[in-house]
Write a structure and sequence with these properties.
Helix content is about 30%, strand content about 20%. It is α/β, with parallel strands linked by helices and about 700 residues long. α6 (about 160-170) links the parallel β6 (about 150-155) and β7 (about 175-180). The radius of gyration is 25 Å and the shape is globular. The chain binds acetoacetic acid. It holds the Pfam family AMP-binding.
Length: about 700
């Protein structure tokens, strides 16, 4: 330990009893190697990729046929996107439901949602056996509707039981799932469905958020008439009772809507088939399983297709081997169906744990998640860094108000977790738990920098690089020096490509133009690969620390790599600023949200750091607050980090998944047209125009006469 090492905040009581340590011992013995530390194991897993992932398959008892070795071409670069387990056959849903046979009465899913004064459904507990039956029924409905391997099934609605059943039934047939959250605007949904042309749409009649009913049915006519190929069948789920609100009556909608293209069904009718056990169509490891859309802000959303086998074995690596989640655990990840954390959550079923679903606002009543944790004995709670920050401001004394008796891990993602919030969690929520800041994202539908139960937690750092991923920064072995996050070796959760995939994956692809397939694959290559070595570029700016306690190096994420700031040659990420300001002291001063970007000056040779600040209603950015911001940044970082301008704005633009958009706003304030930003990808596109005006004014004041970015 050196004086610059961050404080160790937690350490496992019994690291050798963790799954990762046991697997390392098994590998050491089997391969005659000595893997004494996590770092040894991580290095071995990166150097022996076929063997490592094959060991994960065996250790996890994956149901299916692994096929013979070799399991991957070890010489292939990430850019070659090699096929993994080329002869394997497996089914994702079969593996998620595999615990039903031995433990039919275990609770598989607890389905909960936000209440209103006139809508208070009790939590639904669904046993393993019941879940299998529900999937069999939904599968029968899908078969009757003609759904087959490779067809797309889309879901639009809340994170409720029927969404999970739809996902499981879709994948049981080898069909491809895609989902949009209930709060996605209809334009965003049109843009997604138009790209993937689903055969079947399952849609909720509405949901509750912020104690209000949000009906979706009124949006359906616009959706259907806008799609060039409306789904042949649409199934409507009564998540809100008909009588709640006359705008949401499913009966009226079913009677009133006849467009002749899509056939409407009630969920209850669609699944009206005998329960029993579904059939499982085993497909190839590299066959598509679901399509996620990236929250890119220019152009159409990227339709990222993930591979079946990778999604299965990597989730087991993540949840069981590195997270020690297993039967008896209750896993609650706060998510909507529009975020990749949805798949991350449902994949917890394969461990035998109970998965808790909650649909609604996590903060309208800030006690909500903590009440669920107490009421249902949640042991693993996943949330976002933003949520933890908000809780620290609006409901700080969680640990005094809640027992949190079984809680042993809190996972945080979505954006980097500031060091102060590590302190907050350990001081105000619970001391004896693993606080895992984790990072990955839509592009890989998983986590590749994250938690490991065998390792300590250091303040402000992600614990480790996950097994099987040769993560590095472009500053390479010069650890502690920030650089771009890259993956140096191929990995099995690399997406198959963007939709539409090459024809070998398209059973019904005869109507897809080759030019569209080629354009999608070219966009895929362009999105992630930019050097001759064929490394994967993830788009993050990161610092990987020296290894401590054998942890393979901790990671500090510093913002999107293309949002890197560089005033007077000092490179730093927006997170360096956010981590100072995301602090209850600033919330108390009225700061709600901030965004940092660079304004190019000196012909583009230099830039000035601009901090946009949104204040809570009725609060103004006064001189005292400005002074506090500057002095805090100066003392926490350096004088070079102090923004050249601090500007109050009415809103900070956010993607549908709640991410700030530094890169497009940087372009806008430097003169690029706002039309390049796709408004359907934002929660609050109306605020963009304000940034156009601010950009013009700032450029005029800085004497920038010609816009420097297009
Ligand atoms: C795991 C993640 O990285 C989640 C996200 O930020 O989208």
């Amino acid at each position: 330990m050196t004086s610059t090492d961050p404080e160790q905040l937690w350490a496992p009581a019994n690291p050798e009893s963790t799954q990762s340590a046991k697997l390392a011992a098994h590998v050491s013995q089997k391969y005659g190697v000595q893997l004494s530390t996590y770092e040894d194991f991580w290095r071995w897993s990166c150097a022996n990729r076929g063997d490592f992932w094959s060991e994960v398959w065996d250790w996890e008892g994956v149901i299916g046929d692994k096929g013979p070795a070799p399991y991957v071409d070890e010489s292939a670069r990430p850019k070659d996107n090699p096929k993994w387990f080329p002869n394997a056959r497996l089914n994702w849903a079969e593996n998620q439901l595999r615990n039903a046979a031995a433990h039919p009465a275990d609770v598989a899913i607890i389905d909960t949602c936000e209440h209103t004064s006139d809508f208070k459904p009790a939590p639904r507990e669904v046993s393993q056996k019941e879940l299998v039956g529900l999937v069999a029924q939904a599968q029968a409905g899908m078969k009757a509707a003609g759904v087959q391997k490779g067809h797309r099934v889309a879901y639009w609605g809340g994170n409720r039981l029927e969404a999970a059943v739809t996902l499981l039934a879709t994948t049981s047939l080898g069909a491809i799932f895609s989902s949009a959250a209930a709060d996605f605007g209809v334009d965003g949904v049109i843009e997604r469905l138009e790209q993937i042309k689903p055969h079947l749409l399952v849609v909720s009649n509405g949901c509750v958020y912020n104690q209000k009913h949000h009906p979706l049915l009124p949006l359906l006519p616009r959706l259907f008439t806008s799609l060039s190929h409306p789904p042949a069948n649409t199934v409507i789920i009564n998540h809100l009772p008909d009588e709640l609100d006359d705008k949401v009556s499913v009966s009226q909608f079913l009677e009133g809507w006849h467009d002749g293209h899509t056939k409407l069904h009630r969920w209850a009718d669609f699944v009206n088939h005998p329960a029993g056990v579904p059939t499982y169509e085993r497909i190839g490891f590299n066959d598509p399983i679901w399509i996620l859309f990236s929250s890119g802000t220019t152009g159409k959303p990227k339709a990222i297709v993930h591979r079946c086998g990778g999604m299965l074995i990597d989730a087991l690596r993540e949840h069981h081997i590195q997270g020690d989640i297993s039967r008896g655990d209750v896993f609650f990840q706060y998510t909507t169906t529009g975020w990749m954390m949805y798949q991350y959550l449902i994949a917890g079923l394969a461990t035998g744990a109970t998965v808790l679903l909650y649909d609604g606002s996590p903060l309208k009543d800030p006690a909500t998640c903590w009440n669920l944790i107490d009421a249902h004995g949640v042991s693993i709670f996943g949330t976002s860094a933003k949520y933890i920050e908000m809780v620290s401001k609006v409901y700080p004394d969680v640990g005094k108000k809640h027992a949190l008796a079984r809680l042993r891990q809190i996972l945080s993602t979505g954006s980097p977790l500031a060091a102060d919030l590590f302190d907050y969690v350990y001081a105000n929520i619970k001391q004896d738990l693993l606080l895992g800041s984790v990072s990955g994202g839509t592009d890989i539908c998983s986590v590749f920098a994250g938690r490991c139960t065998a390792l300590p937690v250091y303040r402000g750092e992600i614990q480790c690089r996950q097994l099987g991923f040769y993560l590095d920064s472009t500053s390479s072995d010069a650890h502690e020096i920030p650089g771009e996050l890259i993956v140096r070796e191929a990995f099995p959760i690399e997406p198959v490509g963007f939709w539409p995939l090459p024809r070998e994956y398209l059973p019904d692809g005869q109507n897809i133009a080759q030019a569209d397939i080629d354009a999608a694959q070219a966009r895929f290559l362009d999105s992630y690969f930019k050097d001759d070595a064929g490394n994967w570029y993830h788009g993050d700016f990161v610092k990987i620390t020296r290894s401590r306690a054998g942890n393979s190096g901790g990671l500090v994420f510093l913002g999107r790599s293309d949002g890197v700031l560089n005033p007077q040659g000092i490179r730093f990420g927006p997170m360096d600023i956010y981590s100072v300001l995301e602090n209850p002291a600033f919330a108390a001063r009225g700061i709600e949200e901030t965004l940092v970007v660079g304004l190019l000056v000196d012909g583009g040779n230099d830039e000035k750091v601009i901090l946009f600040v949104k204040m809570y209603d009725g609060k103004a950015l006064d001189d005292e607050c400005l002074k506090l911001i500057k002095t805090s940044i100066r003392s926490a970082r350096s004088a070079r980090h102090v923004p050249a301008r601090i500007v109050q704005v009415s809103d900070i633009p956010m993607t549908l998944t709640g991410k700030k958009i530094e890169v497009p706003i940087r372009k806008v304030i430097n003169g690029a047209p706002v039309a390049a930003i796709n408004p359907a990808t934002l929660r609050n596109p109306a605020c963009l125009q304000e940034y156009v005006g601010l950009g013009e004014a700032m450029r005029a004041e800085e004497g920038v006469l010609v816009p420097l970015l297009q």
